[in-house]
Structures are given as C-alpha cells and as structure tokens.
Design a protein that fits this description.
By secondary structure, the protein is an alpha+beta fold. It has one helix spanning 25-36; strands at 12-21, 43-56, 59-72. The longest helix has 12 residues, at 25-36. The protein is elongated and about 50 Å long. The two termini are 23 Å apart. The relative contact order is 0.31.
C-alpha cells in the first residue's frame, strides 16, 4: 500500500462491465479490463460481483463475469 503521506483525496466513478472468455474466469476479467482500457483512463480497482457461465453439451463453453471498476475522475 502507498505511504499515507503520499495519498491524495480521490473521487471515483464506478462502471459496470461484463467480460467473457472461453478459457477461464481470469480471462474474462482480463478481456473486460483490456477492452475498457481503450476508452477509460485511470482505472484503479475492480470487484467481481457476479460469475456465471454458458453450458453447451454438458461442458462449459464460456465464462462470464460482471465487474465493478473504479476509475479516478479527472480534475
């Protein structure tokens, strides 16, 4: 954690994203964050709020996660 003497007061905006992956939950998280980073600056944290998947022929076909992502508002 950063030294508290260096920390500034921040205001965050929270954005909800849904990512998916055929490989893993972690892949679904990465896909959502990589895509969001193309248009959202200063993302600071994320929270997984829901995990689910798609089943085809008795096997997992896709993993899907819903994330809450916090980013710093510009001054």
């Amino acid at each position: 954690m950063p030294d508290t003497t260096e920390m500034k007061d921040h205001v965050y905006k929270i954005l909800e994203l849904v990512g998916s992956s055929e490989e893993s939950i972690e892949g679904a998280i990465q896909n959502a964050l990589i895509r969001a980073a193309k248009t959202i600056r200063d993302m600071k944290w994320f929270e997984v709020v829901q995990t689910r998947g798609h089943i085809e022929n008795g096997s997992v076909r896709h993993y899907q996660v819903t994330l809450r992502v916090g980013f710093t508002l510009e001054e």
